Every structure is written in structure tokens, then in C-alpha cells.
Predict the 3D structure of the following.
Amino acid sequence: MGVLLALLSSALWGTADFVAGELSRRRAALAVAGASQLVGLAVMLVVLLSTQEYRSHTPLGDYLGWAVLSSFAGLSGLVAFYTALANGRMGVVSPIASLGVLVPLAVGLWRGESPSGAQTFGIVIAVVGVVLASGPEVSGGVGARPVLLAVLAALMFGLFSVFLANGSEASAVLTLTAQRATSATLAVTAAVVARSIGGLQRGDAGRLVLIGAFDVSANLAFGISTTMGLLAVVAVLGSIYPVVTVILAWALLRERLLPVQYVGVAATLGGVALIAAG
């Protein structure tokens, strides 16, 4: 079940990123991200009331700190990622940012987790596949700033996964509700200070709801999956969302893929099969 939930989180994240990428071509990317946090908070409040997790008497100290840390890590990662994309080539920035999976992978191994031989081989293939599927560019120069920002984004995305996993040990629902409350507060504060909502319009509501709902659902699925399997394994399965985004762009927008991206998609699927079989 943990494997399936981690794969579901990648499918949801990849779809949310695809829709967000399309909307961000017309609206400020940070506004799209901020609005999605508000939607995510609304979704989590419904989940919280439906599950009555607030009656579990889980100590606040067991999840609140992790929720706040994951909120700051997630938002700072997005800011770094979007800024890197604005100043550098996507073919350089995206593959670097996708390496954020190495953080929870390393943490899981450091904690003493021991994936099977097949899973270890699958992990290596899947990580390489995700990078290749992102369409890395090996020609042309790129400034140091976008590269450093992409590295920062990777680190923050990786830490977000670790913090979310830690909080989910106490309660995935409570952790995500507190995380979204923190992110939504930061987003509203930024909008008030800037006196702008980034050009968002009423007609964008449907896409924003989809982005926010899918993103927070992915977080919830991933958080629960970390309590049901090895972090080193589910972190990799939950990180293949760039492949989902690439496939959607190819299927719906008829975007042409580079030969290396076809190899990456195939490698990722092969890696996932090995991990699941192991």
C-alpha cells in the first residue's frame, strides 16, 4: 500500500505541476503557488473535520514544528525554483532540482534502512531516469546563479519530504493541516505587502482548485506512504512526478520529447517495477 500511495503522490504532483506550468505562462508563478496553498488549506480542513483527527489528542509538539519547517522548506524551494527557471535554461535547472530526492534517500539510509538488492538497483535507475526525463541540456553556457538556485531548490524540496515524513509519524492529517495553514498565512501576507495577487482572475479559479487539491492530496498520500514503508524507497517513488508532467505535455500539448527523455521515461518505469517487485 505504501508503494501505491507514493506512486499516487507522483501522479498527483505531476498533474498539478503540468496545470500550474500552463497557468504560470499567463499569471505570476508565485501567485499561482500562493493561491494553491489557500485551496490546499481548505481541502485539509475538510479532511480534518471528516476524519475527526483533531480528536486524536496527538501532542502538538509531535507535529507542529515539522509542519512549520516543511512549510518554509516548500515555499523557499518554490521561490528558488521559479527564480532559477526565470534566469536560466529549463534543461539545466529542472534536472538539478529533481535531484532533491537524494536528500530523503540519504536520510533513510542514514537511519539504517536497508532496501533489498532489487530495490537498490531500481532506486538508482529511477533517479537517473527522472533526471534524464527532465531533458537535461549538455551544451551551451549557463550562469552560476541559476545553477546555485536550482541546487537550493533541490535541497529545500528534499528537506520538505523529510520534514513531512517526520511529522506524519505522529499524524499526516494534522501535520499537513498545520503546514498549509502556515503556507497560506505566508502567501496572504506576501500579497498584502505587495498589494498584488499576480494578475489572477476569476476565470482561473477552476485551475487553481485543481492545482491546490491535487498538490495537497499528493502531500497527504506521500506523508501516509512514509509511515508504511522505507523512506529511502517511497521517497524515490514519490519523486517521479517530473516524468508524469513530461508525459502529459507530450500527450496533451504535443510537445516533442528529446531522445534522452524517452530513455529517461523508460528507465524510470523500469526502476519503479524493480522497486515494487523488491
